[in-house]
Write a structure and sequence with these properties.
The chain has 263 residues and is an all-alpha fold. Helices cover 57% and strands 0% of the residues. GO terms for molecular function: GTPase activator activity.
Length: 263
Amino acid sequence: MILRKLSVLKLTALMESYASNNNKGSLNWSVPRFIRRIKVPDYKDRAVFGVPLLHNVQRFGQALPQCIQRALAFLRRTALDQVGLFRKPGVKSRIQKLRASCENNPELSTFDDCTAYDVADMVKQYFRELPDPLMTMKLSDTYVGIFLYVPEDLRLQTLQAATMLLPDETRETLKTLLCFLSDVAARSGENHMNETNLATCFAPSLFYQQYGNLKTMTSASPKVRKQQKVPGVPIGRPDIKEMNENMASNQCLAFMIKQVKNL
């Protein structure tokens, strides 16, 4: 708690200093509130997908379900050389079968009849369907704001302060994912997936976006955007603010993957 209070002080000083000097004070950044918990959908009939990380800790003693941990281990062991890992889609029918196996057996350890792309797609879907994204609804704006307003030489310490404010189970899960993605990026000469490419694949799933009902608008097609008719967003295309924030979220995640050990 002492570390968190000090982190709040540092984060507030940095964000208010640089954010208020940009955009003529129009940034509505404020210290995130941690008292009220975010309501999540009912997940009582699920074991893995769409289940809060805290519930996993209470049930299994670990934030990430065993099947997701073993999926990451499987990919690290067998697939780091696969071209377009996380970018190339898997086969929908096999992914659905794999998801069902995980739901029925959260400690699933085998991935027979699946390709690396099937397993990678399932992992990406797991993070996309978390009730509260890894950067959390409360702190996503802060992470984005760091890359919109804070100078480059101060970003690492600002990110460290923000990350200290994440719930323990979320911070541990983020560390696990970033370390794994760093290993993938280290083999980018073979798999063509460097930090920037991986961030493009994962950022829409890890950051909460204000556009649309949740974080879906960032990856929605023009047809979907037209159907949703989000107030203030031009039909069929994002506005400048959204594009800048999407770019900042990608830059943030790419930086965190590259600097995970220092972070």
